[in-house]
Amino acid sequence: MDKQIGTPAATVEIMKKFNISPSKSLGQNFLIDNNILDKIIAAGEITKKDHVVEVGPGIGSLTQRLAEVAGKLTVIEKDKHLIPVLKEVLAPYTNISYIAEDVLKVDWTAIVSERERLKVIANLPYYITTPIVMGLLENRVPTELMVFMVQREVAERMVAGPGGKDYGSLSIAVQFYSQPEIVTIVPPTVFIPRPNVDSAVIKLITLEKPPIDVLSEEIFFKVVRASFQQRRKTLRNSLSKSPELPISKEQVEEALEAAGINPQLRGEKLSLKEFGFISDQIYQLIKNK
Q: pTM for the whole thing?
C-alpha cells in the first residue's frame, strides 16, 4: 500500500474493501493517528539491525511503520481472517513474517534465533494485556525492550511506587523484570472504534538481572501475591493466611522481625527490596522445616 494506513480515511477504506468489523471479543481497536505511531516507533529505537515482533497487528497501521524501519518483522495475529488482509495490504514489504496464533500459545524458541534479542511492539487487546506482558517477562523471552499500547490505568499500575493506590503485585512483577516508563497518554479519539478509556504507550526496558537478589523467585512472588490479596490486611494476617505459604502466624512474625519489617504494615508500603528481605526469611523457614 502506497499511503499510510494509520489515518481515518485509509483505515475506513480498508475496512470497507475487506468487509472488516472490529471484533469486540478480541479487543480490536484500530489506531488512526500517525503522531501516536511516531511516538511508538521512536520509543522502540528501531533500526535495520532489529528483529521486531508485533502482537495483534489488526489491519496493519503500526505494522506498516515497523516494516519501514525494522530489519525483520514478525507479526502474531490470533484473528486468522486478518492474515490475508495484512498480506495484501502490506505486499510491498518483504521483511514481514506472519504467525496466525494466539500469542499466549506461541513457541518463542521458533521465532528467536541464537543470540538474538527481540523488540516487541504492540497495541495490545486490553482484556488480555497482563497475561501477555507477564508471559513475556516471566518466561524470559529474550527481549531488549518492549513498547505497548495499554489501558492507561494498567500503565499507571506498572510504573507505580510504594504507598499509592496504583501500587500492587503488577507493579512489583513488572519492575522485577524491567524498567517501565510511560511514553505518552493516548485519548480514545485516535481509535476506530473508540474505547471507553484513555490509553497509554508504555516502554519496558528488559533487565539482564532483577534489581534485587532473592533466594527463591517462586517464594518472592508468593509473598507479593499474598500481601496484596486483601489490601487492607496487615502483613502478619495476609501472609499467615495465604494458602500458598505453609507457615504459621508465629513464623510470619519471626520472618518479619528478622527482615526488620513492622508486621502491622500493609503490603502497599513495602519496596521491592523489603519484599525480598521477607521472602528470603520465609524461604529459609520453609526450607528448614
A: 0.91
